[in-house]
Amino acid sequence: MRRFRVSLFILAAALAACLSGGAQTAAEKPSTDVRRVGARLQCQCGCKDSVATCSMLECSFSRPAKERIARMQAVGMSDDQIVQAFVRDYGAGIYLSPPNAFGWIIPYAAIGVGLLVVWAFVKKYKPQPLAEVGPIEIDDPNLEKYKDQIEQDLAKLE
After folding, report:
1. Best-predicted range by mean pLDDT among 55-69, 85-99, 107-121, 141-155?
2. How confident is the model at residue 27 (pLDDT cuts 50, 70, 90)?
3. Is residue 145 part of a domain?
4. Structural domain of 64
5. How would you label 71-102 residue by residue, b for 16+ Cβ within 10 Å and e otherwise?
6. Is residue 60 part of a domain?
7. Closest CA to 94 of 34, 49, 41
8. Domain holding 110: CATH number?
């Protein structure tokens, strides 16, 4: 009976540890709302990532920023109000604007121009078919001597 109680206690402790998730904070496992707002703010640790995507371990800016965003959302602030609060505190350089149409068109336009250049090159330098010239005649007497020698060697092989 004692063994059963110990096993039951261990099972309950393991289940509680799995369900608690290790008591993660908003910075360790941010919600989609925190990531959505964090994607609009540039991390100030020196990397070029956003607050939501900063991959630096123990980042001195993104972790407190994620926690601050979670607190502001819990109070009921909108995304724009949160972004404006960060811009007010850190300056306009923290704001990451979403890519506009120009940013989406450039890669496809570059591929299109490249395909046009390749097409023009192939069209200009496409090999032309050769006219039928018939059998090639060799007029050099030294080559005839070697040709005769080759014919004799081949006859010996047969």
Report:
1. 107-121
2. very low
3. no
4. 24-119
5. ebbeeebeeeebbeebeeeeeeebebeeeeee
6. yes
7. 41
8. 1.10.8.640
Assigned domain for 152 exists: no
What's the pTM? 0.50
Q: Spell out the residues 6+ positions from residue 52 whose beta carbon is closer than 8 angstroms to its own.
A: 30, 34, 35, 36, 37, 38, 39, 41, 62, 66
Count up the domains in the chain and report the number. 1
CB atoms within 10 A of CB 69: 29
**Cα–Cα distance for residue pair 90/96, rounded to 1 Å:** 13
Polymer length of the chain = 158
How far, CA to CA in Å, does 22 sit from each of 7, 8, 29? 22, 21, 11
Closest CA to 82 of 98, 66, 93: 66
44 C-beta neighbours (distance < 10 Å), count: 18
Whether residue 67 is contained in a domain is answered as yes
Q: What are 27's two structure tokens? A: 């910075």
Share of the chain above pLDDT 90, in %: 30
Residue 52's nearest CA partner among 85, 60, 24, 63 is 63
What is the reported pLDDT for 22? 44
